[in-house]
Amino acid sequence: MLNLRSMDDIPKRLREPEGSAPLGLAKGEESLKVVNCEEYLKAVSAGFYPPTNYDNKMSAEFVHDCFVLRDLQHARAATASGSYRLTKDSLSQLPPMLVRGAREVTDAAEQAEKRGESWKQFDPTLKVTRIDVDSLNAEDDDSAYFLTIRARGDFTGDGVEQIAVFASANGKRGSWFHAEYLILSPTSHGTLVRRTDRRAPYDIKARIPD
Fold first, then answer.
1. What is the model's pTM?
2. Residue 178 and residue 146: Cα distance in Å, rounded?
3. Phi and psi at residue 154, in whole multiples of 5°?
4. Nearest CA-CA partner of 164 in 92, 81, 66
5. DSSP string, 117-145
6. What DSSP string describes 87-115?
7. Local structure of residue 206 (DSSP, 8 states)
8. Which of 63, 79, 169, 186 could bond 159 through an S-S bridge, CB–CB 3.0 to 4.6 Å?
9. Residue 118: exposed, middle, or buried by beta-carbon count in 10 A (0-12, 13-18, 19+)?
10. For 36-85, what is the HEC assignment?
């Protein structure tokens, strides 16, 4: 799915065109266009972001591929056994994500995640609508959600297999759209904890040494 023959192909893949057209990004009065993952990752790390909802939707293809390609360069094979699969119970195992609304709503989601609450606990109306191989569709009263596992491996150097996930949300009423990238680790309680920051560029909180 990432169009890689081997891990050695990642640097070349990062420089190949991504998306169907150049992506517009902005930071204050500055603006620029990016065409590949290398340019995109450099821009978002410098604080650039999609300035319009159209640009935000266009950025989904970059979010889908670029962060996982970046992180696969540092990943290792996991030494601990176990391989997480998305199931009908995943909403009660995943942390709150793809939360829209005012700052107090997103802050509440962040606090719920710190307390160890699941996505389902934070949003009781959430329900699974479809399960496929390594992907999940869900919805609540306001939005439809899509999650897919992009890669598996030890991204943090603790020997445990984590999953790299692309997640997106579409508003049911209006054109609202949001995409996220997450690396999630399983816990002994059967839940998943986020190992990346909540916002782009989604840095890993504990990266393995180069």
1. 0.92
2. 11
3. -95, 100
4. 66
5. --HHHH-TT-EEEEEETTEEEEE-SSEEE
6. -TTGGGTSPP-S--SSHHHHHHHHHHHHT
7. S
8. 79
9. buried
10. EHHHHHHHHHCCCECCCHHHHHHCHHHHHHHHHHHHHCCCECCCCCCCCC
Distance of alpha carbon 4 from alpha carbon 96, whole angstroms = 31
Tokens of 197: 């920051």
Q: d(Cα 70, Cα 11) in Å, to the nearest integer?
A: 9
Q: Residue ranges per domain, the chain? A: 7-72, 90-194
Residue 92 burial by Cβ neighbours in a 10 Å radius (0-12, 13-18, 19+)? middle
For residue range 64-83, list pLDDT tens digits in order: 999 999 999 999 989 876 78
Structure tokens belonging to residue 75: 């990943």
- Using pLDDT thresholds of 50, 70 and 90, give the confidence band for residue 7: confident
